[in-house]
Amino acid sequence: MTSPHVPIHGNYRGYYTKRPSAHDPRLSLLPDGLFSGKRVLDIGCNEGWVTCEIAQLGVEQVVGVDVDDTLIRAAWRRRRTVWSRQGITEQEMAVKGRQPDLSRLTHVTGQGAPDFNYFPSAFEHMFGPLPIPPRESGTNGHFPHNVIFRTADWLKTRIVEDENGYDVVLALSITKWIHLNEGDDGILCLFRRVFSVLHPGGAFVLEPQEWETYAKAKRLDNRLKENAKQLTLRPDNFRNVLEGIGFTFIQNLGTTGKGGLVSQTSSYVSKTSAVE
After folding, report:
1. Beta strands in the chain (DSSP E)
2. Residues 30, 28: Cα–Cα separation, whole Å
3. Which H or E element spans position 6?
4. In degrees to the nearest 10, what's the CA dihedral of 271, 199, 154, 193?
5. Do residues 248 and 270 touch, judged by C-beta distance below 8 A?
6. Largest Cα–Cα distance of the chain, in whole Å?
7. Fewest Cβ atoms nearer than 10 Å: which of 16, 137, 207, 227?
8. 90-142: pLDDT as tens digits
9. Which residues, other chains included, contact 10 with Cβ-Cβ below 8 Å and sequence gap of 6+?
10. Can you give the residue ranges of the Bin3-type SAM domain (predicted)?
C-alpha cells in the first residue's frame, strides 16, 4: 500500500485553499513599488498563489521554485486559472497592433490595473480555463508570460534564472522546514545563497517562523525529530546571522493574522555589496 503524502518539507497540498482570500495579506506589509520592473524569486512557492499575485504587480519576471513537482504542476495550473479570471489591462490593449481577445471581456479598474477576479470561478468550472495566448512582442513583462515555475531543491541546485540574479527574493513559510531538514548549516546556506544571487541594493523578504512552531512540524517524521535535537540556532538569532553575511537595513514590517491566518512576520533586508 502506498504511503500517504507526508509534507516533511512544508509541501502541503491545497495549502492556499484554506486561506480566506486569494490575496495574501503578507504582501500588503511590503513597501509600495517593491516589485515594479523587478526580477523576483519566490523560494518554496508551493502551488504558486503568491507567485502569480506578484506577477500581476508589474514585475519584469517572477520565478517560483519548489522541491515538490506535484506542487509545481499545480502552480502552472494556478497561472492559467488566474489568467482566466482577470480582466484585460490597459497594457495589454496598448501593445502595438494587438486586438482585444474577444474570449475575454474588456474591463480595467480605475487605477489601470486588471480586475483580478472579474470572471467568477464558476466560469472555469463550467467551461474550462482560457488558453494562455502566444507570447507577443512587448508582452515579456506582462502576466501570464512574466511568471515561470521550476522544480528544484534551490538550496542545493542552481536554476538557469539564477545566472541573471534577482532584485527581490522571497522566503515565506520555509525557514522552519529548511532548518529541520538541513540543520543550522542549512539556514546559513539559504541566507548565503540568497545573498549570492541578489543584485546590490536588492531586497530579501524573509518570514522567520517562530521556534514554538517547530514542535508540531518535527513530529511528522523521526528524522526531523532527531535533527531538531541538534539545532542551536534560533529564529530570534537570524538577524545577527544576516548581518554577518552582509545584509543591512533590516526592518520588521509587522505581522498579519486576521481571518483565521496564523500570525506571520515578514522582514525586509537589503544587500549593499556583492559577495567577496
Report:
1. 39-43, 61-66, 147-151, 166-171, 198-206, 247-256, 264-271
2. 6
3. none
4. -40
5. yes
6. 62
7. 137
8. 555 555 455 545 444 433 444 445 566 666 666 666 767 777 888 776 556 78
9. 44, 173, 174, 176, 177, 217
10. 24-275
Residue 148 is given by DSSP the state E
Contact 35, 168 (CB under 8 A): yes
Domains recognised in the chain with CATH numbers: 25-76+142-270 (3.40.50.150)
The answer to whether 39 and 61 are in contact (CB under 8 A) is yes
- What is the grid cell recorded at 163? 545566472
Extract the C-alpha cell encoding 84.
482566466
CA–centroid distance for 1 within its chain: 34
Containing 245, the helix (H) or strand (E) segment is: helix 238-245
**Cell reading at 149:** 515555475
pTM over 0.70: yes
Name the amino acid, one letter, at 268.
Y
Q: SS3 breakdown of the chain: % helix, strand, coil, rounded to 5?
A: 35, 20, 45
Q: How does pLDDT run across 7-28, given as a tens digit for each residue?
A: 999 999 888 776 656 688 889 8
Owner of C-alpha cell 506578484: 54
